[in-house]
Amino acid sequence: MSNLTPDKRSIEEAAIRIAPWIHRTPVLTCAAINEITGGNLFFKCENFQKAGAFKSRGATNAVFQLDDETLRRGVATHSSGNHAAALSLAAKRKGTRAYVVMPENSSKIKISAVESYGGIVTFCKPTLEAREETLAEVIRKTGACEIHPYNDLRIIAGQATAALEMIQDIPEITQLIAPVGGGGLLSGTALAAEYFGTNIRVIAAEPLGAADAWQSFTSGAFVPSVNPQTIADGLRTSLGSVTFPIIRKFVDDIVTVSEDSIVHAMRLIWERMKIIVEPSSAVPLAAILEDKINVREVSTGIILSGGNVDLDHLPFNPS
Amino acid sequence: MSNLTPDKRSIEEAAIRIAPWIHRTPVLTCAAINEITGGNLFFKCENFQKAGAFKSRGATNAVFQLDDETLRRGVATHSSGNHAAALSLAAKRKGTRAYVVMPENSSKIKISAVESYGGIVTFCKPTLEAREETLAEVIRKTGACEIHPYNDLRIIAGQATAALEMIQDIPEITQLIAPVGGGGLLSGTALAAEYFGTNIRVIAAEPLGAADAWQSFTSGAFVPSVNPQTIADGLRTSLGSVTFPIIRKFVDDIVTVSEDSIVHAMRLIWERMKIIVEPSSAVPLAAILEDKINVREVSTGIILSGGNVDLDHLPFNPS
Predict the structure, then answer these.
(1) What are the two backbone dihedrals, phi and then psi, of residue A10, each rounded to the nearest 5 degrees?
(2) Bridging pattern class, strands B40-45 and B27-28
(3) pLDDT of residue A2
(4) Most C-beta atoms within 10 A of its C-beta, which of A29, A265, B187, B243?
(5) Whether B258 is catalytic
(6) Distance CA B110, CA A179 (A)
(7) Do A274 and B271 touch (CB under 8 A)?
(8) Across the interface, do A318 and B312 touch by the CB < 8 Å criterion?
(9) Are A276 and A303 in contact (CB under 8 A)?
(10) What residues of chain B, 262 to 301, have a C-beta less than 8 Å from chain A?
(11) Residues paired with residue A103 on neighbouring β-strands, in sequence order
């Protein structure tokens, strides 16, 4: 095992480390969606997780490993989304500060989530260059420790605990589906299946409008995410140098789905399961509805990655 | 005990009778809402119930007591809402038909819910007279057995099982809040508290724009619901001759809330708990947010009555 892959023990330790600070989220089933898909689907509800997404697992696992001297200087990241809120909450709990660089066009709701957890926001232009430069400047000034949203062994080990819990709670699962953006959740899911499951097939679902992970996986060579066009705002990022090799080695397949399917799947989850999920969470079910993944005669676990949506801007069209 | 009040045993029997057909719904808590309200709140998630509302409890309890001869002729009701869907589903499970009289202006989503469970819909003008006349006509033609949505001992005993489960699952609860429309859920909740709890205070919350139950309770004389104006579409009906006396005797207080509070509370539940509830479900939390109910230094159970909303017509205003 490469030392750039979290080992079994690091995931077990992550589970113990974060347990007091995160929810062991429920696994829900839905008779209506099983009927529609012909599957036996189990949904791991990370939309109910602290700060509204699985990101609290990795962020907590990373921050709670830092030594006192590092903690004193705070942590930092650039993110427009759930990692920023999760990192802010984890830092707050450790009595330190999170410095978060956010694009100036971030939604009000995401900015206020970060601020509500005590995150210190620095705005920048909405380009990757501006984000990285601004973050470097913040770190230079503060001495804060950067916690990358996914290209980090501690983050991946933390995200792996969602699938670990699911495998413990529903031992009959033989197939796991996760959405893929930067690949932190997917890497962790695949490693949990490898270490803690028995012959579990791991499949990723990705929006066709941001299909860089599919392209990378299929071609075997890293393809960056350039100008991604998808409503699934958690899935617009590129794979990382740590996540891509893990995904190549441990993931069985990546499939892509249309934007219409994502909205349709999201609506189905809202209407039938009565739970709120963000578009990224609906991507695995979209792949099932598009018949890209066979769910017949197997028990399939799906990770609902998060539930942070802006209720003022929902994608449902009046019918 | 009057023979117009379900006794303890009838509620225990209802719980056993309906158990195979309904969900024992989870009880959720929310740290953020506890912080906002200063309370220790437990939410009984009947929005996750079969057919999306607590109504499945009463309808199942009623239909599953009918003898074969009665079942052969089917069941009937007039309803524009959740009782119609719940009755249709219960009838389908007993291999019989539900005849449902619905106002012609019922929402498409509610009509299709009833039809999806095999209910046979007859439309009528949207007045109480038209509903009752059309129902009488349907019953004359079919011989079907009327199952009233709330003014029925079997229905009340069924609805009581929601509070019974909550008292079993969270023994520390000393206060229960339910919304009130026709009073079936409220009557059942109050009886469950009386029979199975120890000194549990029962409070009802009602929209100010449909405050007939509050008026009836306060004046001691039945006041019908005339031209109710509220977004909480499950709470527009009048109390019944069975429910009102139970409520007078066993309910401690009824409080009223504004429409703005209902929408605000509903949004809070969606955003913070990541679950979908209908406006009626948000009325108890609205009462807490309006400081009409003291939740400090007690553990309070709230019944989230249902989750059937039309996603094309949500009440949230862009901020």
Answers:
(1) -65, -30
(2) antiparallel
(3) 57
(4) B187
(5) no
(6) 33
(7) no
(8) yes
(9) no
(10) 267, 270-271, 273-277
(11) A124
Q: Rounded to an integer, what distance in angstroms lies between the CA atom of residue A188 and that of residue A252?
A: 14
Written as six digits, the tokens of B260 are: 């703005």
CB atoms A311 and B271 under 8 Å: yes
Within an 8 Å CB–CB cutoff, is residue B311 touching chain A?
yes
Residues 6+ apart with CB under 8 A from A123: A101, A102, A103, A104, A106
Q: What is the ipTM of this complex?
A: 0.93
The span from the CA of B145 to the CA of B233, in Å, is 25
| Beta-carbon count within 10 A of A170 CB | 16
State which residue of chain B sits closest to A268, comparing Cα positions: B311
| pLDDT tens readout for residues B114-171 | 999 999 999 999 888 999 999 999 999 999 999 999 999 999 999 999 999 999 999 9
Q: Write a three-state SS string for B121-133.
A: EEEECCCHHHHHH
What would the two tokens of residue B32 be?
A: 């953020």
* B10, B56, B80, B216: the active-site residue: B80
The verdict on whether B92 is a catalytic residue reads: no
Closest CA to A191 of A11, A68, A48: A11
Asked if B311 lies within 8 A of A277 by C-beta distance, the reply is: no
With contact defined as beta carbons under 8 Å apart, do A220 and A214 qualify?
Answer: no
What are the beta bridge partners of residue A303?
A44
Query: Is A226 strand, coil or helix?
Result: coil
Catalytic residue among A10, A56, A79, A80: A80
Among the listed residues A239, A271, A292, the one whose alpha carbon sits nearest the alpha carbon of residue A32:
A271
Give the distance, in angstroms, between the CA of residue A214 and the centroid of all CA atoms in the same chain: 16
